[in-house]
Amino acid sequence: MMSDETLIPAEIVNQLPQKYSQADFEAISTSGKYLARLQLMTSNSKQCKDGTFPINHFALIKDNLYKDLGSTVDVLIVAWRPKALRLDEPVISIFDPQDPQFKQIAEDSEEQNSKCMYGPEYLVWIPVVTQFALFFMGSKSARRESANMNARLLKAGTLKPKKIETKQRTWFCPTATPCTTPFDLPSADDIKQEKEKFDNPPKSLVEEADDTGDDTKEDRAR
């Protein structure tokens, strides 16, 4: 009788290679409507607090699945757009900086526990997983570091955590540095297609809430 613990003997496993890769599986097992998010998981992230994800590692997030990409990630930085985010239920994203809702979210983000963020969002290609993803720099600290992202537009960059210290506390935010490791790029057609969609978002986007690793708490605490 077989059970969940039954294993195929190693000598047989070696004769049964899987036809399709893990990347093939992820491509068809997750929802295809939205790109995954790339996020630095700080100590404020729920998953870091409960010990299920390493602190100051980058996560690729889609369908509530968190893939650990390590403490540094090489990316191609394709494009950026403005984004304002209200983390209510449901989550609301606004992409037009002239929209009154965008301006209100930016104003509200200065308040304690407002669940509001704004800043640049980037379209990036992540070669280690051969996927495009969205990378949002919406806290005060991240917005300051976003100039380093913009300096790498249409170039490769390495994302890493940056330590920020004051007399009262220490925290981390993402930053970008030049990438010295060569990697394969997607086709020009794929880049153009994803950039066109990225450059033409809906006026607003309503999503289900999930953890954003809210490093704005550290910003406000200063």
What does this structure look like?
The structure is a single chain. By secondary structure, the chain is an alpha+beta fold. It has one domain. The chain has seven helices and ten strands. Strands 1, 2, 3, 4, 5, 6, 7, 8, 9 and 10 form a ten-stranded mixed beta sheet that branches. Strand 6 (116-126) and strand 7 form a beta hairpin. It is globular, with a radius of gyration of 19 Å. 29% of the residues are buried.
Brief characterization of the structure:
It is globular and about 65 Å long. It has helices at 10-13, 22-29, 46-49, 100-108, 140-150, 188-199, 216-221, and strands at residues 36-41, 57-62, 65-70, 73-86, 91-94, 116-126, 131-136, 155-165, 170-178, 204-207. 24% of the residues lie in helices and 35% in strands.
The description of the largest β-sheet is: 10 strands, mixed
Unreliable spans? none
- Overall structural class, as computed from helix and strand content, comes to alpha+beta
- The total strand number stands at 10
Shape: globular
Number of helices: 7
Q: Estimate the helix proportion, in percent.
A: 10-25%
Number of separate structural domains: 1
The H-and-E topology, N to C, reads as HHEHEEEEHEEHEEHEH
Strand content: 25-35%
Question: In angstroms, what separates the terminal alpha carbons?
Answer: 62 Å
How much is the average pLDDT?
A: 86
Question: Over the alpha carbons, how many angstroms does the gyration radius reach?
Answer: 19 Å
